[in-house]
Amino acid sequence: MTEVEAKKPQESLQDRLAQVVELLQRHRLVEDLTHRQEGPHHDRVEGLVHRQNLTELQRKLDDLHSADVAYILEALPLEDRLTIWQLVKADRDGDILLEVSDAVRETLLADMEDHEILAAAKEMDADELADLASELPRDVVHELMETLDAQQRERVRSALSYEEEQVGALMDFEMVTIREDVSLEVVLRYLRRLKELPGHTDKLFVVDYDGVLKGVLSIKRLLVNDPEKQVAEVMANDPVSFHPDEDAYDAAQAFERYDLISAPVVDKNGKLIGRLTIDEMVDLIREESESEVLNMAGLREEEDIFASVWKSVRNRWAWLAVNLITAFMASRVIGLFEGSIEKLVALAALMPIVAGIGGNSGNQTITMIVRAMALDQVSTGNTSRLIRKELGVALINGLVWGGVIGVVAYGLYDSWSLGVVMTAAMTLNLLLAALMGVLIPMTLMRMGRDPAMGASVMITAVTDSGGFFIFLGLASLFLL
Known about the structure:
The chain is mainly α. The chain folds into three domains: 13-165, MgtE N-terminal fold (Alpha Horseshoe); 177-296, CBS-domain (Roll), CATH 3.10.580.10; 309-478, Tetracycline Repressor, domain 2 (Orthogonal Bundle). It is built from 21 helices and five strands. The chain has helices at 13-36, 42-62, 66-74, 78-87, 93-99, 102-110, 114-121, 126-133, 138-147, 150-160, 184-193, 219-224, 231-234, 248-258, 278-296, 309-335, 338-343, 346-374, 383-413, 416-446, 455-478; strands at residues 177-178, 203-207, 213-218, 262-266, 272-277. Strand 1 (177-178), helix 11 (184-193) and strand 2 form a beta-alpha-beta unit. Helix 3 crosses helix 5 (93-99), helix 8 packs across helix 10 and helix 18 runs parallel beside helix 20. It is globular, with a radius of gyration of 30 Å. The termini are far apart.
């Protein structure tokens, strides 16, 4: 029975978190009460209670999967997080460090001694070490490399030679290779002699004597075919494969498209050098999605939800400063029409509606375009078509919802001309939002920037200033 299978399936992550939090609170409460009591055996009683509570908490953690412990660590304030981290058994440190987010991992590593980090790292594979190396102290990395054998050291260096977003940085070196000129029975006997198969092994890689990939043999084909058949008769000759310098996100899309569990990584000469597995691809897709959400909000990096105030301020200030400038520009636009607003107070009540609907529509457009870019569905050849489509959607929405708010404005202020201006302003601002919703991410991409970076902040600035200017300008021309 595996670690995951041993867990109670009816317990959700939230249930497990609640149980740990309850144990922590009980521990603190009992410890506080014991600390207040006086008596000749006070220290002994306090120590006994302390150990008893922590033992119960540790027993609960031992029953949890490493991924669940990581989830709990991320959901706790720093003090509680470090209390839990101290209770985790040392042989699980490496697995949990790989599961937590970068921001939380930083706080855990800061609480560990060098020898503890070294012990945790020794249990990791080469690709996992490469993923963690940039966050470890330099002297720890140097000492760790000295403890590795020549093959492991070379694998770590190979993985570190690639950029974070390249396939080579994510590839796994643990895999099973076979020859094409042997029978399936020989392959089966060979597999039985292995202690265990590498994780996510759904296929074996067929190579020649020089290590060049010739094909793949799925475990399913191996099991259902006649054992007397040769590997060459059963293997797939044209597997989906990747080069180490390819974009990792493109590989993740291929995994999704072709329902892959693992895939070979080959060099320019076709030599098998590693493999990609579904767990790495799922993690990559999740991280990319989280990064996109953060970028659209103007956050520069992943932030620990329980990070210090100063660290959070440093992560958020840049785009808030940009937003302040754009908000000031919007206020100046309003200032240009102070006379109009004084003459017709209704304008002050209605203009936030125009800006707000425009901002929402622009964010919808940007979300669709950024998603299409992530899926490589947008190219220079279809840009104009996309713009025409989004403008068409904006025109219909503007006329429909602008007409609705125009009728409402007429009902409230008994002015049909105000209703018409409201409809026209809404329509024009939605058209502006659609146009900028396409152009902003495309411009960022052509500049070599993340198309989602601050897109939400920029579209809001455009639709606020533009909406105010359009509405107040039309009102000044036709109502006053």
